[in-house]
Each structure stands twice: as C-alpha cells, then as structure tokens.
C-alpha cells in the first residue's frame, strides 16, 4: 500500500504481501529525492551503488538522490516502511 501526503512524502509498507516496490533485483532509484527505509522486522541485503549493505530489525537507512538501491536477498518475515 502506498500513501501520499500533500504530494510531499510517499510512504510504502513493505511486507511479504506487498513487495512490488522492494522486489529482488529491482533497482530503486530516485534522481530528485532522498529516501528512508526503516526495517521493522526481518532482514534485507541490498546493493547500494554496488556496495553491499545489510539492514535488519530496527535498522534505518537514509539514501540521497541518485543513489541506486537494489535488494538482493530478503527474509521471509521482512516488514518495513519506505519513505
């Protein structure tokens, strides 16, 4: 599910039932915006500008414009919020 607040922030819930935005191998890249991924549960292994990064429960990752973030391994119980 994706929620837009006054065209300023866009929130997406990430879970096993909603992996459209955060699917394996899909590059997440915004040229004009920063973003935040908050991991509420589980674990995600990412390539961030071709460098490995692991985010697990209670982890936070802030990315800057033009950053390429690509999920490479996701646990079954992954839950998070992408802003």
Q: Can I get a quick summary?
A:
The protein is mostly beta strands and 83 residues long. Helices cover 0% and strands 55% of the residues.
Account of the protein in words:
The protein has 83 residues and is mainly β. The protein is 0% helix and 55% strand. The chain has strands at residues 2-5, 9-14, 28-29, 35-41, 43-48, 51-56, 60-63, 68-74, 79-82. It has a 5-stranded antiparallel β-sheet with strand order 1-2-9-4-7, with no helix packed on it. A 4-stranded antiparallel β-sheet has the order 3-8-5-6, with no helix packed on it. A hairpin with a 3-residue loop joins strand 1 (2-5) and strand 2. The protein is globular and about 30 Å long.
What's the helix and strand layout?
Blueprint: E1 2-5, E2 9-14, E3 28-29, E4 35-41, E5 43-48, E6 51-56, E7 60-63, E8 68-74, E9 79-82
Antiparallel strand pairs: 1-2, 2-9, 3-8, 4-7, 4-9, 5-6, 5-8
- Strand tally: 9
Overall 3D shape: globular
Query: In this structure, how is the largest beta sheet organized?
Result: 5 strands, antiparallel
- How do the strands line up in the largest sheet? 1-2-9-4-7
Mean pLDDT: 79
The SSE order reads EEEEEEEEE
The span between the termini is 12 Å
Which structural class is indicated by helix and strand composition?
Answer: mainly beta
Radius of gyration: 12 Å
Task: Assess the beta-strand content as a share of residues.
Answer: over 45%
What's the helical proportion of residues?
A: under 10%
**Spans of at least 5 consecutive residues with low confidence:** none
Report the total helices: 0
């Amino acid at each position: 599910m994706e929620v837009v607040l006054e065209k300023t922030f866009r929130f997406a819930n990430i879970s096993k039932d909603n992996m459209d935005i955060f699917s394996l191998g899909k590059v997440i890249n915004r040229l004009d915006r920063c973003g935040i991924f908050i991991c509420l549960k589980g674990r995600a292994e990412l390539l961030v500008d071709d460098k490995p990064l692991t985010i697990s429960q209670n982890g936070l990752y802030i990315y800057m414009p033009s950053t390429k973030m690509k999920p490479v391994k996701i646990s079954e119980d992954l839950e998070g919020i992408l802003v």
